[in-house]
Design goal:
alpha/beta, Lyase, Ornithine Decarboxylase, Chain A, domain 1, TIM Barrel, eight-stranded parallel β-barrel, elongated, binds pyridoxal-5'-phosphate
Length: about 400
């Protein structure tokens, strides 16, 4: 049994970290919003992940969850590789010091030039469809190139259609039934790749998809199986209790791949989501049609999924005093509005929150994955800085953008 990790930073630890960030000049009176990332707990999670798998497993972390290069470098230093969903992410992986043979290149839209460069570098390449295999053949990849075929076992969708990837109508991969025919036609294929979806996929669905893929890889005598990512996390009490690392490895260890083929993993959210937390200054508090409404410095620019699909995505929020201590007192229905110029830019509607004044802080939890990474330029506000911490040792991971950076971006 692996020790259960703390799900996220206890609120009592926020004030000391803020204090340390203030001393280091990383949080100050003019700060609008800063993202913090708990490196110590992330690193401990990676240690648990490595310990739970056969020694030759290649654990890659999905860059798309959080592409901050210094954060990726911390992941690489802990022995993980990186999963890249675009050529730009391959370059991010290299900038983070990841060895090419520990980078998995997944994308349903790879150009010939990218495929050639990937093969020359010695990346793991997961082909998404038959034409990509044909193009790899034509390019003539060097012997030993790790080429996988992404398959879709058609196991069904999870609770969030947008992020489910093994339903029959998913745009990814080839139907699993075609794997035998394609592996016979393209001997360059050495492994199979499956990714069940990201959040909203329960262990049963992952089990069905991964098990079917492992059986196919064994039947075709392939060397490895990339089981993807998708281990869900819990954002609020309304989310179902997610499977633990132990549940996941127990499930995987019952597959035909465990101990017989090399396993590749591509977790993103499980590694990063709970480790990130955002503190925004509450810039305004006003009455909107009788509802107390606070305006904060992060909205649909950083929380795209929350704002545009509020029924599927949510975050817990806590009102803090200016020093970062939770505010006491009875909760009152409060709407949390972002800074962008449309009425729908809301992070919460009439949510019970402690009484807030201008100058207090709002803590938004579980922001380590698919938030900053999905930044939208609407209204051209600069990206917030990211500060890593191990306990109260703080380090700048990303400087954020000042207005000059934004002008440079659009110039
Ligand atoms: C191919 C692939 N692998 C891995 C991941 C990471 O998923 P998660 O962050 O849910 O673990 C994704 C996410 O979309 C993906 O598309």
């Amino acid at each position: 049994m692996t020790e259960q990790p703390v799900r996220r930073l206890p609120v009592a630890e926020v004030a000391p970290v803020l204090d340390a960030a203030r001393s280091a000049g990383l949080w100050h009176d003019e700060s609008r919003a800063v993202i913090f990332h708990d490196l110590a707990r992330m690193e401990a999670d990676l240690g648990r992940l490595h310990a739970a798998f056969p020694a030759d497993t290649l654990h890659t972390v999905a860059i798309k969850a959080n592409p901050v290069v210094r954060l990726l470098a911390a992941v690489v230093e802990r022995g993980a590789g990186l999963e890249a969903a675009s050529w730009e992410e391959v370059e991010l992986a290299r900038a983070a010091g990841c060895a090419p043979d520990r980078i998995v290149f997944d994308s349903p839209a790879k150009t010939d030039a990218e495929l050639r460069a990937a093969a020359e570098l010695g990346l793991w390449i997961n082909a998404d469809h038959e034409d990509e295999l044909r193009r790899l053949d034509a390019i003539g990849v060097p012997a030993g190139t790790q080429v996988g075929l992404r398959v879709n076992p058609g196991s069904g969708a999870g609770s969030i259609g947008f992020t489910s990837t093994v339903s029959a109508d998913s745009k990814f991969g080839v139907p699993l039934e075609r794997a035998a025919e394609l592996v016979a036609r393209y001997p360059v294929v050495r492994g199979l790749h499956v990714h069940t979806g990201s959040q909203g996929v329960g262990l049963e669905l992952i089990d069905a998809a991964v098990n079917a893929t492992c059986d196919a890889a064994a039947a075709l005598d392939l060397d490895w199986v990339d089981v993807g990512g998708g281990l869900p996390v819990r954002y609020t009490d309304a989310d179902p209790e997610p499977p633990t690392l132990d549940d996941w490895t127990a499930m995987l260890s019952r597959t035909t791949a465990w101990g017989t083929r090399r396993i590749v993993t591509e977790l993103g959210r499980w590694v990063q989501a709970g480790r990130g937390w955002l503190v925004s200054r509450i810039e305004a508090v006003k009455d909107v049609n009788g509802v107390r409404t606070m305006v904060v410095h992060a909205g649909a620019d950083m929380f795209l999924r929350r704002v545009y699909q509020p029924d599927s995505w949510d975050h817990e929020m806590v009102v803090l005093d200016p020093d970062g201590n939770p505010k006491a007192g009875p909760a009152e229905p409060t709407t949390v509005a972002g800074p962008l110029c449309f009425s729908g830019d809301l992070l919460a509607v009439e949510r019970p929150l402690a009484h807030a004044e201008r100058g207090d802080l709002l803590l938004i939890r579980d922001v380590g994955a698919y938030t900053l990474a999905m930044w939208s330029r609407h209204c051209s506000r600069g990206l917030p800085p990211v500060v890593g911490h191990r306990g109260t040792d703080v380090v700048e991971l990303f400087a954020g953008e000042d207005p000059g950076d934004v002008v440079a971006f659009w110039s």
